[in-house]
């Protein structure tokens, strides 16, 4: 394990690289996250991989709580309420439909067991709108459309995280010698999902309301900013310790604290300080995360495997399955009007929502966190990296050109 001085030196170096890439991509009007992934890939190809590694614990306990809290804290509850129907349809029934559509070909064409196929599908389900929303802000895309994409991502992160923990528990049961019938699988899965998701929501609700009431008695920006940090990470750790969904807990606590808590307890000056802190924190975390994502992928290691052809086939099939599932989900689930505002160009909105379904940090965190005893772990990791890179590089880069060709009603 590297010493503290080495870690600090490498983090500063990575931030300098990230800063350079961000300045260049802004001049080129390209989402900075895409530039960071490409530079990270070059770092990996040149074998300059840093000592700081993208471990499951680093992503799950350092990066993820902060990103989830910032996303839920800054999300406009008014716009969320206005667009609740498409967000709910995409994040719950839409995600479940996509889960099945991804798992089916993985089972029948790759030969993964049903539980492994659904485990990989749950890993590939959460969307990551960081690159998309940055581009939307540059091009001044309609706020309601941005809210739908951001809200869907936030809530399907929670649902997908709970489903992941459910399927992983079932996989580990079978690995440890447990024999599960189809009925037992459904019952055990439903019980685990209810406990994980319900418990996480309950923890988030209780903590969000308690902290919001507590902050009412304080009027000091630095102290209140510190309280938001403790809330983001404390709620996640509490839910994780109780074997509940930390992802859902943070999302719910962030939404309550960011709407009810802000309105009830915080002065205008404090809100500005807290907003600035979380904007900066999310910016730095995303910069490091996407740079390390590219550097972490060692293609030669996977392709030198004796199962290289199977890995490539699974990766290609996963990419196709994710795209097809996303398309069917958006076309089949969204209502006739994805927003209550008049003048919505339905076909254009549907296409943007479909093509904006990028995968990123959460998918990588979940797949890297798989225990070593999980069957086909190597296949699941390679497939996830392939989907994340394809969606970031192909969909992310092409989205800007496509948006410029769409009707002006998007703006």
Strand content: under 5%
- The percent of residues in helical segments reads over 70%
- Helical segment count: 18
Q: Specify Rg, calculated over alpha carbons.
A: 21 Å
What gap, in angstroms, lies between the N and C termini?
50 Å
| Structural class computed from helices and strand pairing | mainly alpha
The H/E string reads HHHHHHHHHHHHHHHHHH
Basic shape: globular
Could you tell me the mean pLDDT?
A: 84
Q: How many runs of DSSP E, i.e. beta strands? A: 0
User: Which segments are poorly predicted (pLDDT under 50) over 5 or more consecutive residues?
Assistant: none
Main sheet makeup: none
Descriptive overview:
The chain is mostly helical and 411 residues long. It has 18 helices and no strands. The protein has helices spanning 4-27, 32-45, 56-74, 77-82, 84-91, 93-110, 114-124, 130-139, 143-175, 182-215, 221-241, 246-265, 268-296, 299-303, 308-333, 346-355, 361-368, 377-405. Helix 9 crosses helix 10 (182-215). The longest helix is centred in the middle third of the chain and has 34 residues, at 182-215. The termini are far apart.
